[in-house]
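Teaching assistant's notes for section 4

Start the section by putting this record on the projector. Ask students to predict, before seeing the second block, whether SAF domain-containing protein will look compact or extended. Collect guesses on the board.
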Amino acid sequence: MPPPQTGESPMWAIRTLLGRSLMSLRFRLALSTACAVLAALLFVVYAGHVRAEADSVREEAAARFGGDVVSLVVATKNLKAGDEVSKANVRERGWVSSLAPEGAITSLDVVMGSKVAIPVAKNAPLTKTSFEDPSPMVQVPSGYVAVSIPTSERVGVTSGVPAGASLTAYQLGDSGAKVIARGLRVLSSTQEGSLGMDSRELTLAVRPEDVERVLSASTRGDLRLVLPSEDIAAGKADQATSAPEQREQGEDVASADSKASAGGSGDQGGEGR
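Reveal the predicted structure now:
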């Protein structure tokens, strides 16, 4: 732009400054737009490269081990027995199908909220066995019968009670609670939410004479189970065991007394004659 002539208005200087500012703003906008487009293109290229590399690794693994790549539910940290499955401790991950363990879980929705029954190591796939009780088939003690009853917080003892524990059964009524059975032995228990199931169940060893009362109270919802300490349970068991013997001894003594009394009366009658 030619320099101003002598005597021209100062508006020339103002127009010059405005023109330079507009050119600088347009340049910055154009440069910013170009950088944004370049960054987007670089991201697309990088994403394509990552996908191609992943496909290459998948094809190489499939060619080496055979089979397709499937999605398995894998633990992201060590799980203990009783831990609840959530997105915080498991996730779905690609796995070569020929290397997948038998019974592997392929969908997170199937086991979400369930509790594992056995420990699961970090990065190990979850399987159906992870949610099955590893305890062997229960053995019913001699003189008992096995009874399975549903449990909840309302019953008083949940399915977390260990096998072999001795329980006492109470029945609630209008007049309060009364003991209906002692020495109920826990044979097995199911985990809450096992494989998506919300039911919990206890299998108990019950004496035959107590079965009807326990089942009736469970059906009505009046059953309450408590876990006494070992000394209390042992004391009650001794009392329950000794009570029949004491009754038999009492009956024998009473029978002997009655016979002696009858014999004495006969002797007195003979002497009188």
